[in-house]
Design brief:
With 141 residues, the protein is of the alpha+beta class. The chain has helices spanning 26-39, 44-64, 107-114, and strands spanning 2-4, 11-20, 69-77, 80-87, 117-122, 127-134.
Length: 141
C-alpha cells in the first residue's frame, strides 16, 4: 500500500499481516520481509536489521504473550524502514544488558544495538513494539 501525507508529500509504503505468532512460522515472515526489502530496493545491512527485527519481535509475542494474535507491519517512510508488531499484551518489553551465558534474553538488546531506534507504546488493545533503521528512499515505486 502507498500512502502520501497531505502537505508534506512524504510517501509511506507499507506491508502488513494479521497473524498468530508461532515460532514455526518465523521463516515465512522473514521471507515476506525480505521480498519487501527487495521491492523497496534496500541495502543488505538494512535488510539484515529488518529480518532480525521481524524474528525478534514475533518471537517475543510467541514466547511472552498469552494471546499470540498480532499484526506485523513493515513501513518505508522517506528513507526509514520500520518494523512494528502490535499485540494484545500491555506488558512492555525491558531491554537490559544480557547475561552472555544465558540461552535466551539477548535479542532486544542486540536489536537495539543494530537499529537506529527501538521503542514501544501502549495502545488501547495492548502495545506496539517497533524498530527503525535508516534505509534508502524509493523513487521508482
Amino acid at each position: 500500500m502507498t500512502l502520501t501525507s497531505p502537505g508534506t508529500g512524504t510517501r509511506r509504503l507499507t506491508h502488513s499481516w494479521l497473524l498468530t505468532a508461532r515460532r514455526e512460522d518465523l521463516a515465512r515472515f522473514r521471507r515476506l520481509a525480505s521480498l519487501a526489502m527487495r521491492e523497496w530496493q534496500q541495502a543488505p545491512h538494512v535488510t539484515e536489521v529488518v529480518l532480525h527485527g521481524v524474528t525478534e519481535l514475533l518471537s517475543n509475542v510467541a514466547r511472552h504473550v498469552d494471546d499470540p494474535r498480532c499484526t506485523l507491519e513493515l513501513a518505508l517512510t522517506g528513507g526509514d524502514v520500520e518494523v512494528s508488531v502490535h499485540d494484545r499484551s500491555r506488558e512492555v518489553p525491558r531491554v537490559t544488558l544480557p547475561d552472555w551465558t544465558a540461552e535466551e534474553g539477548r535479542g532486544l538488546w542486540l536489536l537495539s544495538e543494530m537499529a537506529d531506534e527501538l521503542g514501544f507504546e501502549r495502545t488501547a488493545e495492548g502495545k506496539r513494539v517497533w524498530v527503525r533503521v535508516s534505509g534508502e528512499p524509493v523513487d521508482a515505486l
